[in-house]
Amino acid sequence: MDNPPEQHTGHPRRWQILSVLLVSLLVVVLDNTVLNVALKTIQEELEATQNEIVWAINSYTLVFAALLFTWGVLGDRYGRKKILVIGLVLFGLASALSAFATDPMQLIIARGLMGIGGASVLPVTLAIITVVFPPHERGKAIGLWAASVGGAVALGPLLGGFLLEHFWWGSVFLINVPIVAIGVIGILLLVPESSNPNPGRLDPLGLLMSITGLLLLVYGIQHGGDSQDWLSLGVSGAIIGGLAILILFLWLEIRSDHPSLDISLFGIRSFSASLTTVSLTFAAMTGSLLFLAFYMQLVRGYSPLQAGAFTLPVAVGQLLAAPRSAKMVERFGARKVIGFGLVLAGSVFASFVFLQPDTPAWILLVTWFFLGFGLGNVIAPATTRMTLAVPPEKAGAGSAVQNTVRQVAAALGVAVLSSVVAIAYTNTIRDAPGITELPQA
User: Fold this and answer.
1) Which of 140, 254, 324, 327 is most deeply packed, by most CB within 10 A?
2) For the segment 334-350, what is each residue's pLDDT rounded down to a tens digit?
3) Ranges assigned E (strand) in 275-394
4) Which pLDDT does position 244 carry in this prediction?
5) Is residue 437 part of a domain?
6) What sign for the dihedral angle of Cα 108, 111, 112, 113?
7) How far apart are CA 323 and CA 140, in angstroms?
């Protein structure tokens, strides 16, 4: 199926289409962080062990990261609208199963199913934006997409805290169902179908290798962060095995006449440089949000809702900066805008070492607003540069690559920061009576 003819002048309903895509995007990305403040409650209600609650988190992110690339490739081949609807329906059904889980194993399985469905949304929505918007408007549209991703990551703890304050623990999952229903209806009514007109033969071996390699790599990263034992056979073996399979996958793709991944993308300087920038930024952002959840609840003693509220300035900063970044790039150039954002966000990250239990709340709010503002000036223009470097017919695979690397980087950021926090926490309270276990953030 050819891409719609409106790809040069823009689809006449492109802004309505973008609104529907952002609704679908928000509900899936929120789920990556909404559990940050709900873990203790869920663990108590389901009488879950520490290991079971960790798997309830990791089953989602593990499958999510492993399938991003595959969903993007399938969207290019079989139709992005079709794949998006299938993924959202599965995500919504699995959310309902998660909400009414009666034991930890049910929750772990349901969360894994959520990850399978949710993984379709990031690469496919970005690919559809590339198709329905003309080149001169893509920067603004992608800026809104990037702002939604970053904002949803930051808003997750706030939403989770609010729901736990007023409803039962299952509400953090059940809230997804009506939003998914609205998104699916909007997609069916507004979004045009699109795909690569010349997809070539399917590369099942390549897709299987990418899934296996990513599963092992992300599992190793997550397990290393949870256990704080990066040299154990289970952790190092999974990471090395995953990297080996992914390297073999890249080697085979170079020699394939019908590759799932166009290796030449990495030879495009703007694509590879922006990919590196976004990956490092996401690793720092997701890791810092874990640190902030730990700091607000365990150091300052705030409730889940109060702790979640303190992430709001991060989201506000991103929502203000990202949509406007396209105009800033036109005026100053992408390098200067991204460089400014990196310096600003990096300064805030560095300031975390000065946090004290009694640091005034207004300082935290202002500081974290600037963090969001800096991130908005990095993620949006860098994502735009990557997307514009990819031919529209390969938009799904191109966006899948950047989202996959971004998700792996996010997992690494959480794992490394959780290890650092665990060591610092243990050193601080090792002599305190009655404390025998580190609460998981």
Assistant:
1) 140
2) 888 989 999 998 898 88
3) none
4) 92
5) no
6) positive
7) 6
